[in-house]
Amino acid sequence: QVQLVESGGGLVQAGGSLRLSCTASGQIGSSHTMGWFRQVPGKHRELLATIFIPTGTIRYEGPVKDRFTISTDSSKNTVFLQMNSLTPEDTALYSCAHRPRGSTTFGFWGQGTQVTVSS
After folding, report:
1. In 3-state terms, what secondary structure has residue 105?
2. With CB atoms 3.0 to 4.6 Å apart as the test, which of 12, 39, 58, 83 could cross-link to 16 if both were Cys?
3. Nearest-CA neighbor of 32 among 57, 60, 65?
4. Contact criterion met (CB below 8 Å) for 7 and 110
5. What number of CA atoms fall less than 13 Å from residue 32's CA on the CB side?
6. What pLDDT, on a 0 to 100 scale, did the predictor assign at position 39?
7. What is the pLDDT of residue 64?
8. Which residue numbers in the chain have pLDDT < 50?
9. In 10 A of CB 42, how many CB atoms?
10. What separation in angstroms does the CA of 112 have from each of 6, 23, 57, 60?
11. Cα separations in angstroms, 99 against 18, 29, 50, 118
12. What is the 3-state secondary structure (H, E, C) of 20-50?
């Protein structure tokens, strides 16, 4: 299986920045997609961005594409989410996920890291 561990969340003031990290271990595979999601309690999980490994092909979803940047450090099996110009609407539990090549669904998820943006 694939194990994913996120870090980097915390409390930040509006307008501030955070960089989230997601480190993968286990049966990752040589070709796969990593994604960043966020979820507010009682709401459905929202896809933010994906990056395809090992090519680095990136896709952003919705309005976060102008403020968030996804990247990887392949040598460390780590994917990052740089978040700038944060607003209280960005408050959520942020999770990373792994999707094998050829699959349309993410099968492995991290525990999430909480991001709270104060006004």
Report:
1. coil
2. 12
3. 57
4. no
5. 21
6. 97
7. 75
8. none
9. 5
10. 6, 12, 23, 19
11. 24, 10, 10, 33
12. EEEEEEECCCCCEEEEEEEECCCCCCEEEEE
